[in-house]
Design a protein that fits this description.
This protein has about 375 residues and is α+β, with helices and mostly antiparallel strands. It has 3 domains: about 100 residues, Rossmann fold (3-Layer(aba) Sandwich); about 90 residues; about 150 residues, ATP-grasp fold, B domain (D-amino Acid Aminotransferase, Chain A, domain 1, 2-Layer Sandwich). It has 10 helices and 18 strands. The strands form 4 sheets. A 6-stranded antiparallel sheet has the order 8-13-9-10-11-12, with helices on both faces. Strands 16-15-14-17-18 form a 5-stranded antiparallel sheet. The protein is globular and about 70 Å long. The protein starts with a strand and ends in a 10-residue tail after the last helix. It binds adenosine-5'-triphosphate (ATP) and magnesium ion (MG). The site of adenosine-5'-triphosphate has 24 residues, from strand 9, strand 13, strand 17 and strand 18. Adenosine-5'-triphosphate binds next to strand 9, strand 13, strand 17 and strand 18.
């Protein structure tokens, strides 16, 4: 059997060719080596098209050094590239098309609106969706505010809590709203009160340039005043089967309406946060079990509807009654949340599982069809 090779596909951050997750890749290369999987890192910019080779970034655990080597295009690819507005991203799109025949462990998913509509088609998932609509005019906003005391406005392709506006009807004051949020550059906009007509114009301006959703706000304010949610990671394992890797709680920065770590939030153990939030260990365990089943079924469903996935992180909002809502799904999740919550074992697992899955793919591709295992 040939030596399995996995290429981690990423994008340079800048012209100095820096990488964002180099320590994650180093760890994956080391773990890959232990499993007999040859792992290297490359970007579309490093591909020599006519030679079908890449000028790869390789890491040698013995010397602890990174270097460059010409390598054949890898048969399997773990795509870590997130959507961005840049020439580098355009080059990535061309790479994905041209090398479509290679085995990508994961393919790009769709925007938040398409995902929402896809989940909505099934009663199984519909019960876990906050009411959401595409923001097209002030009528949409009024409609949402008629049914919900809190509404979130967010871009369909946003990441890292960018461009998120929280609108809350002020209790006891008809026609007055509290607004608070984070601009596209993540700067916090301080809370302020506006009238309905002011709100209309704020939201209209907020939504210029890209498409936004208006979404029912789930009450997630902790007694400390901070907002929180949960990040759940499900991954395919070494048998090609979806499995829960772990779940962590995220608590937002003070004055922040989002709980993203990059917006100043911090990570905590999910069990502990949920126990406090729901009031008992028993309820927390029950809700986590329900969340696990939901996450696994959601990942399998999205893979069926679109194309290959090897992992999915779900941002879950859980209200005080223990009702679970899917806020969004992330096909290229960071693992940092587990490191930051002190859940080192889950962090390790999150890096190893895609490698074990790649080995499973490799074995199954090489094995004659009759000997392939099928698992439920
Ligand atoms: N409907 C909602 N109700 C309550 N809080 C929400 C809602 N939507 C978003 N939030 C808060 O804002 C955060 C960011 O929202 P969301 O995950 O949809 O956007 P994102 O910018 O894509 O985040 P990511 O960094 O995960 O890519 C959530 O983690 C949550 O804290
Ligand atoms: Mg999110």
């Amino acid at each position: 059997m040939s030596q399995p090779v996995l290429g981690i596909l990423t994008l340079y951050l800048n012209d100095a060719k820096q990488l964002e997750e180099k320590s994650v890749y180093r760890r994956m290369i080391i773990e890959g080596g232990k499993l007999g999987l040859d792992v290297f890192v490359f970007t579309p910019m490093d591909v020599h098209a006519s030679k079908e080779q890449v000028y790869a970034m390789v890491y040698d655990p013995k010397t602890g050094k990174w270097s460059r080597k010409w390598r054949a295009l890898p048969a399997m690819i773990f795509d870590r590239c997130r959507i961005q507005k840049s020439a580098r991203f355009q080059q990535l799109l061309r790479f994905r098309t041209r090398y479509n025949h290679l085995t990508f462990l994961n393919r790009p998913l769709r925007n938040k609106w398409t995902i929402h509509q896809t989940f909505s088609q099934k009663q199984r998932f519909r019960q876990h969706l906050p009411e959401t609509l595409l923001y097209q005019s002030s009528t949409d906003l009024k409609r949402m505010l008629r049914s919900h005391p809190v509404v979130y406005i967010k871009p369909i392709n946003g990441t890292g809590g960018r461009g998120i506006l929280r609108i809350e009807k002020k209790a006891g004051a008809q026609g007055i709203f509290n607004i608070q949020g984070r601009r596209q550059n993540r700067r916090i906009i301080s809370p302020r009160k506006v009238s309905l007509s002011q709100l209309d114009s704020v939201v209209r301006k907020w939504c210029i340039g890209t498409t936004f959703l208006a979404q029912q706000g789930i009450p997630l304010r902790l007694p400390s005043g901070r907002f929180h949610d949960y990040r759940m990671l499900v991954q395919k394992n070494g048998h090609g089967v979806w499995e829960l890797t772990g779940m962590a709680g995220r608590v937002g920065a003070a004055r922040s309406v989002t709980s993203n770590l990059h917006g100043g939030g911090h990570a905590v153990r999910a069990e502990k946060l949920l126990r406090g939030w729901l009031g008992s260990q028993e309820r927390a365990v029950k809700v986590m079990k329900t969340a696990e089943k939901l996450g696994i079924e959601a990942a399998a469903y999205l893979e069926d509807c679109f194309s290959s996935l090897c992992e999915l992180a779900l941002d879950l909002a859980i209200d005080r009654e223990g009702k679970i809502y899917i806020l969004e799904v992330n096909p290229k999740p960071a693992r940092e949340v587990f490191l930051r919550s002190g859940d080192i074992e889950t962090y390790r697992k999150s890096l190893v599982r895609p490698l074990e899955y790649a080995l499973w793919i490799h074995r199954n591709k090489e094995a004659p069809a009759s000997s392939k295992v099928t698992e439920e």
